[in-house]
Specification:
- This protein is an alpha/beta fold and about 325 residues long.
- The protein folds into 2 domains: about 220 residues, Rossmann fold (3-Layer(aba) Sandwich); about 60 residues, no CATH class.
- Helix content is about 45%, strand content about 15%.
- The chain has 10 helices and 10 strands.
- It has a 5-stranded parallel β-sheet with strand order 2-1-5-9-10, with helices on both faces. Strands 7-6-8 form a 3-stranded antiparallel β-sheet, with no helix packed on it. Strands 3-4 form a two-stranded antiparallel ribbon.
- β9, α5 and β10 form a beta-alpha-beta unit.
- α2 packs across α3 and α8 packs antiparallel against α9.
- The radius of gyration is 22 Å and the shape is globular.
- The protein starts with 20 loop residues before the first strand and ends in a 5-residue tail after the last helix.
Amino acid sequence: MDFRTELTPKHSRKINLKDPILTLGSCFSQSIGKKFTDFKFQTSINPFGTTYHPYAIHKLLSLAAKQKSPDQDTFLVNNDTHYNYDFHSAIHGTSLPSLKENIHSIITSAHQYLKSCSVIILTYGTAWSYKRTDNGNPVANCHKMPSHLFNKELIDSNDICISFKETYEILKNINPSLRIILTVSPVRHVNDTLELNSVSKSILRVACHRLSTENRDVEYFPAFEIMMDDLRDYRFYKSDLIHPTETAENYIWEKFIESYFDEPTKNFLDQWSQIQKAIHHRPFLPAGSAHQKFLHQTLSKLEELKLFTNVDVEISHLKSQITS
């Protein structure tokens, strides 16, 4: 007798270690991006800071693709700190010139990365948008400015699709082979109320469905459904009852591996997991003959993996522990 509805994602075009990855969007994109980094993929994780709304994500991608600085009226000052409405508050400056220089550097780096990137993973967090009352433009972050400066609006799936397609064309102009994987964040936005969070997630899901069926090289990975319909239990949420636990994140990652990685990459991941355990092993007698033998064996395995990825840091770390 089955007591849960397990979700098995469809098999998709494969990703391997040679594919540069860019993850953008909500805090879930940070989580999956770290998984790629941990397993030695070339990965750029949220270079613009965490963003939740599709408009904000699309705009930042367009700015980077066109190598364009944000408009002057998007800069602001709050508590003697300079911010930009298009970027997360982690990107700030003590002066306007320093912030502009920082943003210019981020956009330039992102532009270069986009030109060679193989896959972008976009994670939409909410369909609720905050728009400035003075010009009607949506913002990525309110930067704790007074609430009367913004209107909160729920955008529909059609507007998300229009915004995406404009950005998609710009990206394809600089990187025709680029693939995009869309996801909806399983993190629940309870401040919007549970009812309106469901409305928001539904809009995002409808948009992702349309975009993945109407656009070449656009796919959908069901992270949201894996969390809500497969795991479907509060034991897979952290104590805030909003964010997935590490166990849930690992389960979703395993589903991603199953769907997207080819066999050689899966084999590498298995080997790398064993190497990581060996590297992080804490011996009782570091200079003992048994541990020294263990280090030499691990070092030999690392040398074999040099054919697949850069392991110079790990090799150097092990060599520093070898005394015989």
